[in-house]
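Quick bug: TetR/AcrR family transcriptional regulator output formatted oddly.
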Amino acid sequence: MKRSLDRKTKIALEPRKQPRQQRSSKVVDRILDAALILTREQGTRTPTTLAIAQRAGLSVGSVYQYFPNKEAILLDLARRWLSSFPKVIQKRIDVPRPTNRDEFRREVRKLFIDTSRLYLDNATLMPVIEAISGNADLRPIQDEYDKEIIALYAAWLQHVNPALEAKIASRLGVLMMEVGHVCRLVGLKRDRRTFDLIEDDVEAMWLALVTPHLNLD
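Here's what came back:
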C-alpha cells in the first residue's frame, strides 16, 4: 500500500503561504527562479536560504513567509520540473496522427528533444528527484506525476493506433517512462557525450518496443 505524506513531513516541507494574488505569485516565482539559478551555478552544493533571498532581491523574512526552509523550496522546484513533462507529452497527442513509421519516428524525435532539454537544464535538481524517489514519505509526490505521465504515454500510443488495447498501452507507457528516466539519470552523472549516446539508445529501444503495436506502414 502506498503511503501518503505524514503530517510532520507535510508541515516541514509544504509552502507556508499559498500565493493568492498576482503580486504574491511573482514573489514566489522570484524565489524559485533564484533557487534554480543557484543550484545550476553551485552544482552539488545546496544553496542557503540567505543566498536564495539575496539572489531574489528579497529579505530572508520574505522568503520564510512562503517557505519554511530551503528543502521546501527545492521540493517545489522538483514539483514544477515533474509537472512540465505532461505538457510536453500532450503536445504530441495534440498534433495530427502519424500514418507511417517515418512520421512516428519524427514525432518521437521531437519528444526526445523537448524532454532532454528538461533534464539537461535541470540536471542539478536530479539529487532532489532521487531523494523523493527514495523517501517513503515523499514518494507519493512523484507517484502522482508518474501516473499522469504513464496515462499520457498510453493516450499518445492510442492516438497513433486507436485499436491498441488500453492495458497494452498502459504497460508500454510504464516501460517508456521508467526506462527513459533511469537511463537519463545515468547519462547526467557522466558527461554530455555519454548523455547524448544514451539518449540515442533509449530512443532506439522505444521505437523497437512500441512500433510493432502501432499498425504503421
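Actually, after a second look the formatting is fine. The CA atoms of residues 154 and 168 lie 8 Å apart. Closing.
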